[in-house]
Amino acid sequence: MFSRDRWNEILEALTANWFRTLLTAFGVFWGIFILVILLAAGKGLENGVKQGFGDIATNTMFMWTQVASRPYKGLPKGRRFNFKIDDVASIREQVPGLLYISPRNQLGGFGGANNVVRGLNSGAFNVYGDYPEIIKQDPINITSGRFINYGDIEDARKVAIIGEGVKKELFTPEEEPIGDYIKIQGVNFMVIGTYTKKSNNGNPEEGQNEIFVPFTSYAQAFNSADNVGWMAITATDDNSITSLKDKVIDVVKVNHYIHPEDNRAVGNFDLYKEFKKINGLFIALKGVAYFVGVLVLLSGIIGISNIMLIVVKERTKEIGIRRALGASPWAIRGQILLESIFLTIISGMTGIVASTGLIFLVNSLLDGAPASEDTMFANPSVDLTVVFVALFILITSGLLAGFIPAQVAIRTKPIDALRTE
After folding, report:
1. CA of 205: how far to CAs of 86, 117, 162, 191, in Å?
2. pLDDT digit string, tens, across residues 335-385
3. What's the angle, vertex CA 55, arms to CA 183 and CA 160, rounded to 5?
4. Per-residue pLDDT tens digits for 101-111
5. Which residues form the MacB-like periplasmic core domain (predicted)?
6. Is there a contact between 147 and 178 (Cβ–Cβ < 8 Å)?
7. Global pTM value
8. Which one-letter DSSP state was computed for residue 260?
9. 371: how many CB neighbours lie within 10 A of its CB?
10. Measuring CA to CA, which residue among 267, 269, 265 is closest to residue 80?
11. Cα 107 to Cα 115: distance, rounded to the nearest angstrom
């Protein structure tokens, strides 16, 4: 029940030496402030690093051919081989749990020789022969027109989707690229779409300088037949590509007569495995933030406990009179605990408000700064769970800080307390 007299007594006790109370409260304020700031900074770093992955499907592996390092079934060591389009069907049939399998071929590259021409303009761009599923594995934002569809695949249409960087290099701002033609290594392709995308490799310029064409028309135009340069393979949400990777590789080993124990013939990059490592790192960082924050908070709690011991000592005579007048041990204990909890929560909530204000300021500065895909820090924040955890820590800490002084108070005999000067 609310008691005005009790709260007046608490305020009077805490303001009797306000400077001492302020210094004591600062320890708890600083502990909660550091805890929230560390958690927000860790989240900002996590957001920045994960932003570097772009929108790419993280449950994905990339697979390509290398050189056979062992002889097998009469075939020599050191031979080269190519994936075939039939490998896609074999993998799909023999490895359940896969969502997308996208065979790709690649031509040219950023920074290489000019391979694309339109009128008097030319440039060096990555050209990919793809299937429609690739846009679900490595999403792009179509700014005009459309992406590849299965009609383009079946009819081997010579159509192309170009990045905004390609558009800028080959077309003037007044020209509309949709329906116009570009020449890729001497072969005409009609532009049917333009796009922008986030970079996945730290080079935002390269992400806009790519051209996508149907896999089948790529094969016809550049004589790649049924060869596949590499594959992007994504597992369903119920499976991790890491657990399916060996099965996928075993299928292509059988198809191409690769020794079962030849681990060099098929190259691969497991994006999901790397993503899990990063998640594990940030879980560890969060644990470190809690550990450091709680230690700093603990030093503040110890300070409050020491001050409450001093307060109890100063009020020994008062406590003796109250005991002599019939105050129960629980009433004395409750008063001391309430003072400790009140001081802890007030100082702690001030720390939470100050830290969230600083986080808001940092986010405002980041929002106002020029956008950059190279940043490793983005949107530092804390969720409500952190606030509730902080409140729980504060209440528990207040109880712990007041428990020892409260026990000292109720163990003092009334007659001894009254004798104290």
Report:
1. 34, 19, 13, 20
2. 777 777 777 788 888 888 898 888 888 888 877 666 555 566 777 877 777
3. 15
4. 999 999 875 44
5. 21-249
6. no
7. 0.68
8. T
9. 8
10. 265
11. 9
What number of other Cβ atoms are within 10 A of residue 364's Cβ? Answer: 10
Query: Residues 6 or more apart from 68 whose CB is under 8 A from it?
Result: 75, 76, 77, 78, 79, 80, 81, 258, 259, 262, 264, 265
What is the distance between the alpha carbons of residues 172 and 170, in angstroms, rounded to a whole number?
7
Alpha helices (runs of H) in 171-270, residue ranges in sequence order: 204-207, 215-222, 241-255
* Under 8 Å between Cβ of 66 and 266: yes
| H or E element at residue 384 | helix 384-411
Element (H, E) at 150: helix 150-155
Provide the 3-class DSSP secondary structure of residue 323.
helix
Find the angle CA(365)-CA(370)-CA(374) to the nearest 5 degrees.
105
How far apart CA 244 and CA 266 sit, in angstroms, is: 15
CA 237 to chain centre: 18
Residues 150 and 153: their CA atoms lie apart, in Å, by 5
pLDDT under 50 in the chain at which residues?
1-2, 110-112
What is the Cα–Cα distance from 156 to 85, expressed in whole angstroms?
15
Residue 1, pLDDT score: 43
Q: Are 216 and 150 in contact (CB under 8 A)?
A: no
Would you state the structure tokens that stand for residue 104, as one six-digit string?
Answer: 């790709």
190, 159 contact by CB (below 8 A): yes
Q: Are 284 and 381 in contact (CB under 8 A)?
A: no
